[in-house]
Design a protein that fits this description.
Layout lengths: L12 H17 L6 E2 H8 L4 H14 L3 E2 L4 E3 L7 E7 L5 E5 L7 E3 L12 E6 L9 E10 L4 E8 L4 E6 L8 E4 L11 E8 L8 E9 L6 H9 L8 H7 L15 E2 L5 E5 L8 E7 L5 E8 L10 H9 L3 E2 L4 E2 L4 H7 L8 E10 L5 E11 L3 E4 H10 L2 H6 L4 H21 L8 E6 L5 E7 L3 H23 L6 E3 L5 H14 L11 H11 L5 H11 L4 E3 L23 H16 L4 H42 L5 E10 L2 E6 L4 E5 L8 E4 L4 E4 L5 E3 L3 E10 L4 E6 L4
Parallel strand pairs: 6-8, 14-21, 15-22, 29-34
Antiparallel strand pairs: 1-3, 2-3, 4-5, 4-7, 5-6, 7-8, 9-10, 9-12, 10-11, 12-13, 15-16, 16-17, 17-20, 18-19, 20-21, 23-24, 25-26, 27-28, 27-33, 28-29, 30-31, 31-32, 33-34
Helix pairs in contact: 1-16, 4-16, 10-11, 12-14, 13-14
């Protein structure tokens, strides 16, 4: 996304443009509006600066907010039977458009209607007809607004003396990229490279490019993760202007910075994180009051104090959107001086924070709350492992070491269960997916795969952060200020009906008709807990839901069954949290926002929400792929070994088996030699034609690993029959 966001008011130009942008869109969305030329629009609006007006029209057209016809007339896409969104390609050559407007349905784009568009491009699509027989409606790309793949990572292959080509690592980039001899940058055959596209694909013509970086060859240590970083275009280095700004930021809290803040340094307060976490942005405290209420304090690093609006630090944080946690490193949103230093709530040092204090009763209801700026000092840097040992294993050595804090930890466990029970009663869906961690040696080679189950320590932090996020969202929703919400919309009825049928065939009844309350889904998830079908039920329920995202509008959170929800608790690693902190701080200092400031903030929120949602999606894909890559590498040294597993999904070409260590691979139907197997789509089973043997989801099986393709991240199994 082109970075147009401005936080500074340069003599009112930015604010005036935002006002005019809104007026233009409102005008074009009027029922009586007919597409007008630029001259006619200028005549209507009478702008003070004609050139600035024309630049604004071009900018809005580039963003897909408005469309210019071949006759030079402007209108909004939805009134011209056009849809703007992001293209998601399938390796087989077709694609789906994911529309910007949440009320629009996905559109299928056949290979012949892509018109040179590639995976992740922002495009304008013309629908070709309505959806038929439950299938997505079809469309064609008529304009490419923004290219997503100016640089591509892949493997260079020599053609002849005059040319070579790069095969992209991402199979959704379906074109090989032609590289003429003068643009090969001395790359040898088989090199991992970054190629910059110089000519985009056309009908029957592949894209062309020049190699701008040779990453490495063969199995060099760390090459795989470096390739992944280039593939997702993750920004590793910070620009020089960011480092110049860091010079003026102190390494410790100055006395004058504490003025006007509430001093909470007397409270027993701790951070609880993973062993290897360095960016500690949340601390918790708890007191049990004489009236029986729990006084929960959630104290979040005041990143907004150091990262000012419009600064180089802010612009770079906006561009990155989030920290990315790869299998062997962290690519932070903020430089380490902030993320691991002055903003991190390290123990026994003064830190600036935004605190939310909540008085909670025995039913989990927040009776009173306060939100304010504070200065804090955490007592200890606790880990999930240590807190679990104190509370569950009752480790005598640890309980003695942290004796003054043990009563607080025990009260935290009580409050956690109260909050969780309240959340479950209202219908919040709680998925139990164990976390998979791959341990590496010093060369980056995977040596162990470990699965971590959530403990009471994890749940304490989870419930306390949920409570703070809901409280903040509710507070500022009723103040009617521009805000960013974390939303999760209701699932599509078609997906729920498909899920209902799937669950019925597994023996589970999903109650309700049409729209389903999340409580009904939670009931099914609870019923499947501890059974062989638990993982697949959780997976299929999750697939039926929409993806949570950021939005400037309050729409609720379906999965949490929460009326109000936001992300407030991680401003070191998430940009929306930082934006929210700034709004809160501005209101705390000024009492209220001026009308002009409200309008300016409201105009910026949609772009911030979209950018943050997009960067979150990219980070999740990169993180997941980095783990999958190391899992396949780990399994590659175990070809021929036999494993116990569970069938995780069934297709027409075979079934996938998940092992205890979370590795997943395919048993292809052609390797089942005892019968001819037919796929039952409704029941998601493979049934033998003669012997009627059935393979279904959740069924335990024993398999032998026969192939591990690291490049494709793919494992192939064969069934091991019992004697």
């Amino acid at each position: 996304m082109k970075e147009k966001l401005e936080f500074t008011n340069r003599e009112g130009i930015a604010d005036n443009n935002e006002d005019l942008r809104r007026e233009l869109l409102d005008f074009m969305r009027e029922k009586a509006y007919r597409p007008l030329t630029a001259e006619e629009l200028m005549e209507h609006f009478q702008p003070a600066d004609g050139e600035e007006f024309m630049r604004l029209l071009a900018e809005m057209e580039e963003e897909g907010k408005i469309v210019r016809t071949r006759r030079g007339r402007y209108g909004v896409p939805e009134k011209m039977n056009l849809v703007v969104g992001r293209l998601v390609m399938n390796p087989r050559g077709y694609a789906f458009l994911l529309p910007d407007r949440p009320e629009e349905e996905d559109i299928f784009i056949g290979a012949g209607n892509l018109n040179g568009a590639m995976h992740n491009d922002r495009v304008i699509v013309r629908p070709l007809g309505p959806a038929v027989g439950g299938r997505s409606r079809e469309g064609e790309v008529i304009r490419i607004l923004q290219r997503a793949n100016r640089r591509v990572v892949g493997t260079f292959e020599k053609g002849n003396r005059r040319y070579g080509y790069v095969v992209p690592d991402d199979k959704r980039l379906v074109y090989d990229i032609f590289v003429p001899v003068g643009a090969q940058n001395r790359a040898r055959d088989g090199a991992k490279v970054v190629v910059e596209i110089t000519r985009w694909p056309e009908q029957r013509r592949n894209p062309e490019g020049r190699i701008v970086e040779v990453i490495g060859y063969g199995n060099e240590p760390g090459l795989d993760v470096e390739v992944l970083i280039r593939k997702y275009d993750l920004p590793v280095d910070f620009p020089p202007e960011v480092y110049r700004e860091l010079e003026s930021i102190p390494d410790y809290v100055l006395p004058e910075e504490m003025e006007g803040r509430r001093d909470l340094r007397h409270l027993d307060m701790v951070t609880i994180d993973g062993e290897d976490a360095k960016d500690l942005d949340d601390a918790v405290s708890l007191e049990v009051l004489p009236d029986g209420l729990y006084r929960l304090g959630v104290h979040i690093a005041d990143v907004g104090h150091y990262v000012k609006e419009g600064s180089a630090l802010d612009r770079e944080a906006y561009r990155r959107g989030t920290s990315v946690y790869l299998v062997d490193r962290v690519i932070p949103m903020l430089p380490p001086k902030l993320s691991n230093g002055i903003c991190s709530l390290n123990p026994q040092v003064d830190r600036l924070a935004l605190s939310v204090i909540m008085d909670i009763d025995s039913k989990g209801v927040v009776r009173r709350h306060e939100i304010f700026e504070s200065v804090i000092r955490t007592r200890e840097r606790m880990t999930y492992t240590a807190v679990k040992k104190i509370l569950v294993d009752r480790d005598e050595e640890l309980r003695a070491r942290y004796r003054p804090l043990v009563p607080m930890f025990e009260a935290m466990a009580e409050l956690c269960q109260i909050l969780r029970a309240r959340r479950m009663r209202r219908g919040s869906i709680d998925f139990n997916f164990p976390e998979t961690k791959v341990k590496l040696d010093e060369r980056g080679k995977p040596v162990e795969i470990v699965r971590y189950e959530r403990s009471i320590a994890d749940m304490i932090i989870e419930e306390f952060m949920l409570a703070a996020n809901e409280t903040v969202a509710r507070h500022y929703y009723w103040m009617e200020v521009p805000f960013l919400y974390r939303i999760h919309e209701e699932p599509d009825e078609e997906k729920i009906e498909a899920l209902r049928e799937f669950l019925y065939n597994l023996g589970y009844l999903l109650k309700g008709r049409g729209s389903v309350h999340p409580r009904a889904l939670q009931k099914v998830v609870e019923e499947a807990a501890g059974t062989p079908a638990e993982k697949v039920v959780h997976t299929m329920v999750l697939r039926s839901l929409k993806q949570a995202c950021y939005a400037e509008q309050w729409l609720g959170h379906y999965g949490l069954a929460a009326e109000y929800y936001t992300h407030f608790t991680s401003p070191i690693r998430r940009y929306p949290d930082l934006v929210i902190h700034r709004i809160i701080k501005e209101i705390l200092h000024k009492g209220q926002l001026s009308p002009a400031r409200r309008e300016a903030l409201a105009a910026r929120m949609p772009d911030i929400a979209r950018q943050a949602s997009e960067r979150e999606r990219i980070a999740m894909e990169a993180e997941r792929e980095s783990v999958d890559m190391k899992i396949v590498q780990y399994m590659a040294e175990r070809v021929g070994d036999v494993f116990d597993g569970v069938i995780s999904s069934v297709t027409s070409f075979g079934f996938f088996v998940e092992l205890e260590n979370s590795a997943e691979g395919l048993v292809h139907v052609t390797t089942l030699h005892d019968d001819f197997y037919e796929f039952n789509e409704k029941q998601l089973t493979l049934i033998g034609r003669h012997r009627k043997r059935v393979f279904r989801i959740g069924m335990p099986v024993r398999v032998r690993l026969v192939r591990a393709n690291v490049e494709e991240r793919q494992l192939d199994f064969e069934l091991v029959e019992e004697e």
